[in-house]
């Protein structure tokens, strides 16, 4: 059998042409392989597979020639699911039932505003890691944002593999990150005691109670606005953190950000004072502890809080920082006072204290000259102490 009669022939010194008939039309595609006998045999086997799938009706042009300009011409009804914009639109709908409202909204923004505009016209098999990396390199954002974008894309492609729309996930076990740069401004920017005093002094009573509570519990804004009076155990001096309300949830309480977020917080004296003072305003009016003083209803998210917060800091002549810094303020106060990092981690809803050490390490005091003496006094044996005394007396 000649090379021409089998539909596979050398096209140049570095390529092989493959030809086949599909839907009554003769097609020719170029394979970038040196036309050695072995490579010609490989391409011949590929052609055999193509002919077999054409015969049984399962042939997908994009699966064999993803970069061919003829691909779009051959998008069939079943092939529509391979177009990235089409696939991601339907995939996103499926995620709405399993994601929290805030997470879903984050996914939607990444898909609709970033991935689809960039890659939507391609078919799934055409999406390559190199193209994704080159795209990410041009994006003016930090590594955290880049990681979030890739996480959404990786999950979508993984599901496409599970649905047998893709053979492999090009983002599996890969994550592009830029080389970390030294930050000119520290993200952790807590309020000093003087600044806290200035802010609380001019705040309306209910807002003052809310902010004092935030400064002395370290709760996330979403956790604070979801708190009910039934979550406070005054007998045991504990706060039960079980729910959160984000802007995306539109006032509907959801589970906390993480499993570690479901926790009990010890009520410190300033937080207790804030709760007791707030009782007269909301204890008999509904479930919510802290409410929007303008609407007299529970906060529906952090946006209205940010609006009031910005004006409050301006009036108090305090340099602006976003409301989440109340959480950082709590952590820095606890650690600067020498509280156990593990205890602080549990109070804040971290799984372990490694995050505390990484983020707030500079607020943790160095060991002083008395370090170790408590352990020595508790566990040191009398024999060891006597020997040390004897050694000292002989010198």
From TrEMBL:
Record's keyword annotation contains S-adenosyl-L-methionine: no
UniProt cross-references to InterPro entries, sorted A to Z: DNA_brk_join_enz, Integrase-like_cat_sf, Integrase_catalytic, Integrase_recombinase_N, Integrase_SAM-like_N, Min27-like_integrase_DNA_bind, Phage_Integrase
CDD domains for this protein: INT_ICEBs1_C_like
Pfam families with a match to the protein in the record: Arm-DNA-bind_2, Phage_int_SAM_3, Phage_integrase
Family indicated by similarity: Belongs to the 'phage' integrase family.
Record carries keyword DNA-binding: yes
Keywords linked to the UniProt accession: DNA integration, DNA recombination, DNA-binding
Protein's UniProt name: Site-specific integrase
Domain Tyr recombinase positions: 186-373
């Amino acid at each position: 059998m000649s090379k021409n009669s089998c539909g596979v022939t050398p096209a140049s010194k570095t390529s092989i042409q493959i030809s086949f008939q599909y839907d009554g039309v003769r097609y020719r595609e170029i394979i970038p392989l040196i036309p050695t006998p072995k490579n010609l045999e490989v391409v011949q086997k590929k052609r055999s597979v193509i002919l077999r799938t054409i015969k049984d009706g399962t042939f997908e042009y994009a699966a064999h020639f993803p970069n061919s300009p003829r691909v779009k011409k051959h998008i069939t009804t079943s092939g529509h699911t391979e177009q990235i914009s089409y696939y991601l639109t339907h995939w996103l709908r499926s995620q709405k039932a399993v994601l929290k409202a805030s997470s879903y909204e984050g996914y939607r923004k990444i898909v609709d505003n970033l991935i689809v505009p960039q890659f939507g016209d391609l078919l799934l098999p055409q999406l390559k890691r190199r193209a994704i990396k080159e795209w990410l390199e041009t994006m003016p954002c930090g590594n955290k944002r880049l990681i979030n974008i890739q996480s959404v894309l990786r999950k979508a492609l993984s599901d496409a593999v599970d649905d047998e729309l893709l053979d492999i996930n090009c983002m599996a076990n890969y994550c592009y990150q830029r080389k970390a740069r030294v930050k000119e401004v520290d993200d952790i920017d807590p309020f000093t005691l003087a600044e806290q005093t200035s802010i609380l002094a001019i705040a309306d009573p209910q807002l003052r109670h809310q902010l004092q509570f935030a400064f002395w519990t370290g709760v996330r804004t979403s956790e604070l606005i979801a708190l009910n009076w039934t979550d406070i155990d005054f007998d045991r001096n504990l706060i039960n953190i079980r729910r959160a309300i984000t802007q995306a949830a539109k006032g509907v309480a959801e589970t906390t950000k993480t499993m570690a977020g479901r926790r009990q917080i010890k009520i410190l004296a300033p937080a207790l004072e804030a709760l007791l003072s707030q009782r007269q305003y909301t204890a008999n009016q509904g479930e919510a502890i802290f409410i929007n003083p303008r609407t007299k209803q529970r906060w529906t998210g952090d946006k209205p809080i940010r609006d009031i917060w910005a004006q409050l800091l301006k009036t108090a002549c305090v340099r602006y920082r976003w409301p989440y810094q109340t959480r950082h303020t709590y952590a820095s106060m606890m650690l600067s006072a020498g509280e156990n990092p593990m205890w602080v981690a549990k109070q804040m809803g971290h799984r372990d204290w490694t995050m505390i050490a990484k983020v707030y390490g500079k607020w943790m005091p160095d060991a002083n000259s008395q370090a170790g003496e408590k352990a020595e006094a508790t566990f040191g044996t009398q024999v060891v102490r006597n020997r040390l005394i004897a050694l000292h007396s002989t010198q």
